[in-house]
Amino acid sequence: MNAPEKMSVQAAAPQPLAGLRVVEFTHMVMGPTCGMVLADMGAEVIKVEPIDGEGTRRLLGAGAGFFPMFNRNKKSIAVDLKQADGAEVARRLALSADVVAENFKPGALTKYRLDYASLSARNDRLIYVSHKGFLPGPYEHRTALDEVVQMMGGLAYMTGRPGDPLRAGTSVNDIMGGLFGAIGALGALIQRGITGRGMEVQSALYENNVFLMGQHMLQYAMTGRHPQPMPARDNPWAVYDVFTVKDGEQIFLAAVSDAQFATFCDALDLPDLKADPQLATNNQRVQRRPQLLATLRERLAHRPAAELADIMERAGLPFAPIRRPEDLFDDPHLNATGGLADVELPDGADAGRTVKTTLFPITMDGQRLGVRLQPPRFAAHTTELLAGLGYAADEMADLRQRSVVA
Q: Which of 70, 133, 281, 382 is most buried, taking the most CB atoms under 10 A from its CB?
């Protein structure tokens, strides 16, 4: 599929939330993810930024991709909430919305009368999505980060080696918290269609991390044995590991049933392992896993990873090359299916440069949800949005002159 065809597919994608207005007071990853999901599905999403811009526009290192990744398909307005006229602009925007999303500390927006109680008293149809570190309770006033909840919620323990807790390699809780916020917003929209009234939805980092741990909590409840970290876990399958092969390349190989193990042995020319009665069943193989893996590592060490991948694919067996994030830009599946789309970088020395981004990982009516609006330049839509709220040209000029808006 060539680039023009990809763009036409994206342009034809359904927009089930077209006509819905979302105003977000968000920063970093969690809240912006919620807004991005709703924007990708067609909502008009307005990002209310601080007067000097949202901080992720300026992040370096691992944070450099935050803003262009999670703020596509949005409009930007910059408002100084600390000025009374700025708070009034923000309230007028919020009261024009179907959904307000925020991810500030509990109570932070109350002083601007931008909290749910204040806004819903004036618009009972409003849906208000709060993204927090913790749901209301003993921990709610703690400052949370993805690392914090991964450490206290068991994920770092399960990811690292014994005695070496390790956070997952992406912003898993922040992103998932935004997804849960969007799910809650969609449910509240359906309920509003029935009752005519909105509601508050809350999503929290800690609780969604605990949700991820549910399978391991139940594992302990059912077996009475402490779940081991993933690198040291009691593996239910014998062939389920990363192998270092020719030239130091690595590949993940698996065979998770008796039939798959037989196919694995046939495909890789291991007739003696297939015929060994001590390896006949999965549980037998698990009991002999260390010896079996040592044998496989020796037998496969001289074989190229690409050759093994080709054999496994032709045999219909599970495998995976070990890739870095940048390798995904050249992934043939993503490029053939339109899973990557062009965006223009909005900030910094590379502003205006076109790069590839990942799309929301669903199809609707067979189409991927594409990029309708580029990640916005700072305050790019201030004039348009103020005019839509009824501000006259001289009023807008005055607000700008006093740095109430930018």
A: 70
Rounded Cα distance, 77 and 97, in Å = 15
* E-assigned strand segments in 20-86: 21-25, 44-49, 74-78
Say if CB 289 and CB 282 are below 8 A apart.
Answer: no
- For the four alpha carbons of 261, 268, 232 and 154, in that order, the dihedral sign comes to negative
What b/e readout covers 235-261, taking b as 16+ CB neighbours within 10 angstroms? eebbbbeebebeeebebebbbbeeebb
For the chain, 406 residues long, the average pLDDT of each consecutive 10-residue run is 36 89 98 98 98 96 96 98 98 98 96 98 98 97 96 97 95 98 98 98 98 96 94 89 97 97 98 98 96 98 98 98 97 96 96 97 95 98 98 98 98
The neighbouring-strand residues paired with 75 are 46
- Cβ contact 74:36 at 8 Å: yes
153 sits in which H/E element:
none
Query: pTM above 0.85?
Result: yes
Q: Which residues pair with 244 in a beta bridge?
A: 250
User: Which residues, including other chains, have CB under 8 Å from residue 72's CB and lie 6 or more apart?
Assistant: 36, 39, 40, 343, 357, 371, 373, 374, 375
Q: Which residue has the tokens 């990708």?
A: 40
* CA distance linking residue 7 with residue 222, whole number of Å: 50
Distance spanning both ends of the chain, measured CA to CA = 41
d(CA 227, CA 215): 10
